[in-house]
């Protein structure tokens, strides 16, 4: 069985195609294709409330390319999810309808809670009976989820994201509301561990050159990497550190969001599992296809 997940974010758009097989009693997920295209829809939307005509045309072309790949791989089922940029855009739904009518690709524009729920599906292997604060930083929003005893006890989406904060276009009230949410739902007398998801925390983790099988960062290490990055200009981050151009400018604002959440929760450690929205979507697709036909 072949499955495809498309994540339409504010900073980039991703397609992953996965082959699911069943062998010797084990279910295996093998990645066949992964494409990340740096189309920054959020820059349009967070300034002008709508996706510009040039980016609209690029977006439609990209969806045509993704649909071709989905068809060429003979995918059995797919899901396309759009997050904060398209849901806040005045013309986001019109563009989604254009893609549906002209290309035959259905786009689901999901809210922050649904986005968090999909990501959480991929996190369960990392959650036990301890207390956790999950911090997912995207281009346009940050989703916070709090877990205790393997139960989600609180969840909220905030309009704080790496692209949105590039021009410091986030009011102090929004930052305060995020801190207040953490303080109101976490007992600061007890130890809590953060779980960080999103492309920027994965890149920060990679820059630490971690030991094999290590999947966590101390807050001091995140602060150290952030200071290290601040020592380079944007051009140097691209050409010396070899960061993607659309990563080089947002990684520091994103680091500030992760650190703000950790400091509010008085957390000293963040697990970085390298999962995201597309992984949750894959799980949903897999589950809903179990009742349709067996895995081959």
Automatic annotation (TrEMBL):
Q: Where is the signal peptide?
A: none
- Which SUPFAM superfamilies does the UniProt record give? Actin-like ATPase domain
Q: Which InterPro entries match?
A: ATPase_NBD, GppA/Ppx_hydrolase, Ppx_GppA_N
Stretches assigned to the Ppx/GppA phosphatase N-terminal domain: 36-282
Q: Name one Pfam family in it.
A: Ppx-GppA
Question: At the top level of its lineage, which domain of life is listed?
Answer: Bacteria
Q: PANTHER family annotated for this entry?
A: EXOPOLYPHOSPHATASE, RETROGRADE REGULATION PROTEIN 2
Task: Specify the protein name.
Answer: Ppx/GppA phosphatase family protein
Species the sequence originates in: Echinicola jeungdonensis
